[in-house]
């Protein structure tokens, strides 16, 4: 007999919400309901693991659910790269591009140099002033 099946036979936690009801009809027994929720969380985790293992088995023939040297799961993924950020600039009268310093940006003017940020409670909380 499989060990997982053996564990299910000896597990006394409720399997449904109906088993959590008090026999006198006085509502739900909170202790039993907590045990039921723990049982359901374990069942959910087991299903997720089974689905993940099944997807790996479908993608990689010979995958048996255990990490092996033969199938390193990290080698297939390309290295993540960040998108290059643009440089804030403006055109001069001559048409040349002039790079803006952070202090010259509209964001800095609106949020850092703005005295109202300190006066308004919700803005002060956002910017920790």
Strand-helix topology:
Blueprint: H1 3-10, H2 30-59, E1 89-91, E2 97-99, H3 106-112, H4 116-119, H5 121-127
Antiparallel strand pairs: 1-2
Biased composition (Basic and acidic residues): 64-77
Region (Disordered): 63-94
Biased composition (Basic residues): 78-88
Task: Describe what you observe in this structure.
- The protein has 129 residues and is mainly alpha-helical.
- The chain folds into 2 domains: 3-59; 89-127, no CATH class.
- It has 5 helices and 2 strands.
- A hairpin with a 5-residue loop joins strand 1 and strand 2 (97-99).
- The longest helix has 30 residues, at 30-59.
- The radius of gyration is 30 Å and the shape is elongated.
- The chain starts with a helix and ends with a helix.
- Residues 78-88 have a biased composition (Basic residues).
- Residues 63-94 are annotated as: Disordered.
- Residues 64-77 have a biased composition (Basic and acidic residues).
List keywords for this structure.
mainly alpha; elongated; two-stranded antiparallel ribbon; 129 residues; 2 domains
């Amino acid at each position: 007999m499989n060990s997982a099946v053996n564990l299910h036979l000896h597990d006394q936690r409720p399997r449904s919400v109906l088993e959590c009801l008090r026999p006198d009809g006085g509502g739900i027994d909170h202790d039993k309901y907590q045990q039921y929720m723990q049982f359901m969380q374990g069942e959910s985790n087991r299903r997720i693991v089974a689905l993940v293992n099944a997807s790996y088995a479908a993608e990689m023939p010979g995958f048996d659910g255990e990490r092996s040297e033969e199938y390193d799961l990290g080698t297939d993924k390309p290295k993540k790269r960040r998108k290059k950020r643009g440089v804030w600039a403006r055109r001069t009268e001559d048409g040349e591009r002039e790079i803006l310093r952070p202090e010259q940006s509209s964001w800095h003017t609106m949020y850092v140099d703005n005295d109202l940020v300190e006066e308004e409670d919700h803005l002060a909380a956002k910017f920790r002033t």
